[in-house]
Design brief:
Blueprint lengths: L6 E9 L3 H13 L3 E5 L6 H4 L2 H18 L16 H21 L10 E3 L2 E3 L4 E4 L2 E10 L3 E3 L5 H5 L3 E2 L13 E5 L3 H12 L3 E5 L11 H11 L5 E2 L7 E3 L2 E6 L2 E5 L1 E4 L3 E3 L25 E3 L10 H17 L12 E4 L5 E5 L10 E7 L5 H5 L6 E7 L5 E7 L3 H13 L4 H5 L9 H19 L5
Helix pairs in contact: 1-8, 3-4, 3-6
């Protein structure tokens, strides 16, 4: 122990004031005021500062600008072409970001006294010591929720310098680049790549795999690859290394060479681990209880590396807090039905059991192509996209699915709730479906799957 500093002793220490950490804090403070919350800054959750909210603000603007470009096809003549002021666009995005973060901070950490809040980077030791700059805290029980950071391969930052962007830095731009490469076409890369392309940036996309937006089902992924390529060119199955050539980015790939102003690195996020002292480096986190090894330390949110989405971070924050409170008696909360949504065009959604986890011999698969026959999609000029659902062949229970279609964020929730409540194809088919709505496309898939299920079971549809 550092003996030159004053030692602060508490029952609970919460490290990290993001979504999981603040959820844990709200549980702990219901029980006691014998706690300290530690955060290295900047304050505000990943969602509010650099994730969900600023990206959705940018996407919203891009969708409007794209819609105005197509006004003539609807019989609407604009007096002039819309003029994009990219500096104003980015200022608006930052205003929304600052609104969300300042509101969050004002209602949480700003209300805490020095007794309960310490600013600084924490390092945790097995004996319960936490070193934070000049502070030494000894806590009986510790909750770690220190978040994650964008993955940047070794050497790339040093070579590229300010030409490299991540989701943590892109919203600090004063103006949009003319030409931008996006490396990594997962959720963030796809969302931002399409939005920036709609705002007039010349985007080129690269991905080492053959999937986009986290899709696994070939039926949906094939469609989405073709659709994205209409927005910006995509090079898949390409391992590329961006290089700085004077003040430009150069990328050599199979079939060509790209030169541009910036590169956006969207290769995923990695849990922050600099809170671990050497003695904790090799300890693992239990996926159910969130306990680190056999210590009274619990790791939640992005730091655990299990889920990386807001509602699961909140669940983990609560689980970590409850286990810290009741230690050594530990419990685990059941994960929610896996749900992943991408705010692309069209939107993507994966719910329930993933395609790669399924055994084709044990499931019934239903498919629908929106360009076939959905009246609502046709009149909205959104008759593009695909649906794929999976059900258990023995019970008829819905297991999951993938959507690549307009309004997938809403339809995906309905499907996730159906999976979580254990609805069968027969029960879902009996639900009301209004006309004309996009949900009728889901109804079509369910009824087709139910016919197959009933035929195999020797039943007739109710």
């Amino acid at each position: 122990m550092k003996t030159t500093q004053q030692v602060k002793r508490v029952k609970f220490a919460i490290i990290g004031a993001g979504s999981a950490g603040l959820t844990a804090w709200s549980e702990i403070k219901k029980q006691t005021d014998d706690y300290v919350l530690i955060d290295s800054g900047p304050l505000g959750t990943t969602c509010a500062r650099v994730g969900c909210m600023p990206s959705k603000a940018l996407i919203h603007i891009a969708e409007h600008y794209q819609a105005w470009q197509g006004a003539a096809a609807l019989g609407i003549e604009l007096p002039a072409q819309p003029i994009l002021h990219d500096d104003q666009v980015l200022k608006r995005v930052r205003r929304f970001r600052d609104r969300f973060t300042s509101g969050l901070i004002a209602n949480t950490t700003d209300k805490l006294s020095e007794q309960h809040f310490i600013s600084g980077r924490a390092v945790v030791y097995p004996n319960g010591e936490i070193h934070v700059d000049d502070h030494v805290i000894v806590a009986e029980r510790i909750i770690v929720a220190v978040g994650s950071k964008p993955i940047v391969p070794d050497g790339w930052s040093a070579n590229l310098g300010d030409l490299a962007l991540t989701s943590d830095t892109i919203f600090e731009l004063e103006t949009l680049p003319k030409r931008l490469a996006v490396i990594g076409l997962g959720v963030i890369g796809l969302e931002l790549g399409q939005a920036l392309a709609y705002l007039g940036v010349e985007v080129m996309g690269f991905d080492a795999q053959g999937q986009v937006g986290g899709l696994q089902d070939p039926f949906c992924n094939e469609f989405m690859l073709e659709h994205v390529a209409k927005t910006f060119p995509v090079q898949i199955n390409q391992q590329v290394v961006p290089l700085r050539v004077q003040n430009q980015v150069k990328i050599t790939y199979q079939g060509g060479e790209w030169l541009g102003d910036k590169v956006l690195l969207t290769l995923g996020r990695r849990p922050n681990s600099d809170w671990r002292s050497e003695a904790l480096q090799n300890l693992t986190v239990d996926p159910v209880t969130l306990q680190l090894g056999d210590l009274p330390i619990f790791v939640a949110g992005d730091a655990s590396g299990f889920h990386g989405i807001l509602h699961e971070a909140n669940r983990e924050g609560k689980t970590a807090a409850q286990n810290a409170i009741h230690y050594p008696v530990l419990t685990g909360s059941k994960p929610l039905t896996p749900t992943a949504i991408v705010f692309s065009d069209p939107q993507l959604c994966r719910v329930g059991v993933s395609f790669n986890e399924l055994d084709p011999r044990e499931i019934i698969i239903g498919s629908f192509d929106l360009n076939c026959n959905n009246g609502r999609a046709i009149v909205m000029d959104q008759d593009y996209g695909r649906i794929r659902l999976y059900a258990d062949r023995t019970s008829g229970r819905l297991l999951g699915g993938e959507l690549a279609m307009p309004s997938a964020e809403h339809l995906g929730h309905l499907l996730a709730w159906s999976v979580q409540t254990g609805l069968t194809l027969n029960e879902m088919s009996a639900m009301p479906f209004y006309h004309p709505v996009l949900e009728e496309a889901v109804q079509n898939v369910i009824d087709t799957m139910l016919d197959e299920f009933n035929a195999e079971q020797g039943l007739t549809k109710n």
